[in-house]
Amino acid sequence: MPPPPSPSNTSASSRAVSLNGPPSADLPSSMSDLEMNAKAIQDRISGLMSARKTPSSPRPDSRVSTSDSLQLLDLQGQIERFQARLDAAEDENNRLRTRTDGAEREASSRIEALVAERDCHASRVSELETASRTAERSLAERDAQIEALQRAAEQAARDAEKVKLDGEARLRDAQSMLEDKEALVAQLKEAVDAREGEQSENAALLKAKNAEIAMLEARVQKVSGELEEERRELGGHVDELRKAGQETIALYEERLSAADAKRYELEDMVVSLEEQLRTQARPVSPSTVARQATSAVEIDNEMLRDQVQHLQKKIGTLEDTLEDMRTANEHEDAAVRERIKRYKEREEATRKELTEGRQEIERVRKGEEKARMRIEELEEAFRENTIALENAQAEVETLRNEIADLEGLAAAAASNSAGELAPRANAERAKLQEEVAALRQQLAKAQAAAPSAGAGAQALEEELHLLQEDRETLQESLKRTQAELADERAIVEELRVLANERTTELDTLRKKLNRDGSINGHELKAPVSPSSKHDMAAAREEITGLKHIVQELQKENAAHTQRSKVLESENKLLMSETEQLREDLKALEEDVEKSLVREEAMLTGEQPPSPSTPSLDDIQALQRSYKDLKSKYETEGEQLRKKLADVEMKSARQAHDIYREDELEREIERLKEKVSRSQKKSSKTDLPLPEESNGRPPSVASTMSSTIGQSDELVCEICERPGHDIFTCDLLKEDAAPPSAGLMSSSLRADSELICEDCEERGHTAANCPHSLDVF
């Protein structure tokens, strides 16, 4: 007699049922069928027992041996019929089990559909989070651009105020510097030349500002396109990380299901062996066989009832949790919509501020044009005054010569015609005095009408102020780069700590996988599956990739520190040159003042010119040396600005890479939390329930299985080349096996292309990069 069927098959099949599915409609009908079959089996057994007690045929008592043999034949026939009926009952029981299995499979399919819907909602929430982060970054970049435009507008306002102050200073200084005639004419000519050069410089500056505005607008458009591309790339990375997490969850569930199946097989084997030992130890009568069959059917029925009740309870709890998750998702969607609305309002405000900044720049440009026209008018008046001064100087010289001649004639003819020459001399002297008074009036008018007499010295002072402001801006940019370097050092330390944490997590995961599962008091070691080995290798490769990234960041940090030191030395050199220029300017002003005093003394005739006073040639030589130093300083300042722009661009790109790594790390942490939660749930559901009277523990657990799709094209996040992922990158494993022919050809094609190190685009190098002046 075979042993009764084990309930392990139904329990193993019930593991494919999830906890979210609805109850099956065929379960009550199957239970009623089982009860009817049990009653029918009991009736048949009772009928057989009653038929066994009745005699088979009325034979005489004299023929005992013949009647015994016939009775044995009848008994054998009855046993065979009983066996056939038992086989039929077992078939009926198997049919009922198949029906229950079908109902459970239907429930599992419905539960899987609900799980897929839940995963879809989770993916939607993650996409909204990524969109909000990209919007925040774009808003920060636009705020930075608006601040830069505001600083430019303030700088233009300061320049206009400085021009106004310079004009007032020129008006004050013109009266004291117009008394020198000959030297003043030469200095005014030099000032006119310098002013023409300044006009050309102002025109070039206006053109440069227009080009800068156009470049900023083009950069805004480019940055918006790059942000859109970055958002799409981040979405793809998030999908890849999500798929990787789902793969790990599926592998873990497969391992759990394999261990459970093996345990249940061993339990079934132990039960079957015990039943075989019992059947071999003592003969089994048909009545005991029938009782065992009925008891087995009753036990199966009870177990099925318990399982159905347990599944109904779990389904109810899971429906409650699903409803809670739906409400939470609705709240999160509302919050995300509100946040997006706020971001849109901020974007509109930034656009308005940008338009106001452009209007302010336009007003500043108009003010500069008006100032240029005013400067041209003053220069024209200055030219007219210089011509009038030259004419006055010539007339004064002629009058001096005539006075000298008249004095000589008066001294020679004093003895002869003193009476005749006296009235004539008095008339000529009065006439000359009138001419001198008229000339003095013209000189006073020229002094009042020449507001730009000291244009040369004032231009030098203005240029010196500009150089000082450039030096201050360079110092501020140097401080910013130093602060960014400190931030990068802190980020590198955080990445190092994170790598150490990952190694510890890997060790704990390895220990957890090496633990043994206990079955009936005995320790059974589950074999390590290839999927677990693959997970361990993938984790190691991920840690090596993070270490490689940390090393690259350390190298870039060292390069930035070296560059900051070079910039500090160059800044000190520029400061020393600025001090020297200031001293030269002071010396030049002193020489100009001395020359003015000397010329005044020569005109008044008080004292002769001292030989130690510098001449106009010395002043012109000093001005030329100053112009040379100025051009040198401007070239060095332009080089420093370019270097600072390169440093800021690289630091911004490095910060962008660090933000990207942080987002990937956060996504990995979320996936790990999901895996740990699923592990906790599976460990809770895999705990054995209290044993029944027959000693066999019922298994009521459920696992979730999900099909994971892989993307058609993989892109490595370390070298950013298509055809492989970060776990199979050649940069992480130098002694790895060679890739396939297709991947080899694609990598060779990618290496053959030119890649820029600054903007990371293909088709050109860093020396020919069109975005070398851009700051990201």
**Looking at the structure, what is the overall shape?**
rod-shaped
Number of structural units classed as domains: 2
Walk across the major sheet and give the strand order: 1-2
Average of per-residue pLDDT values: 68
The number of helical segments is 10
Helix content: over 70%
According to DSSP, the number of beta strands is 2
The secondary-structure class comes to mainly alpha
Uncertain parts = 5-28, 52-64, 516-531, 606-614, 686-712, 734-752
Rg on CA atoms, Å: 51 Å
> How can the largest sheet be summarized?
2 strands, antiparallel
Strand proportion: under 5%
Oligomer: single chain
Distance between the termini: 83 Å
Give the H and E element order.
Answer: HHHHHHHEEHHH
What features would you describe in this structure?
The chain is mostly helical and 776 residues long. The protein has 2 domains: 8-515 and 525-705, no CATH class; 706-776, no CATH class. The chain is 80% helix and 1% strand. The chain is built from 10 helices and 2 strands. The protein has helices spanning 8-14, 27-53, 64-177, 182-281, 286-412, 418-449, 455-513, 530-604, 616-685, 741-752, and strands at 517-519, 522-524. A two-stranded antiparallel sheet has the order 1-2. Helix 2 packs antiparallel against helix 5 and helix 3 runs antiparallel to helix 4 (182-281). The longest helix is centred in the middle third of the chain and has 127 residues, at 286-412. Mean pLDDT is 68; it is low at 5-28, 52-64, 516-531, 606-614, 686-712 and 734-752.
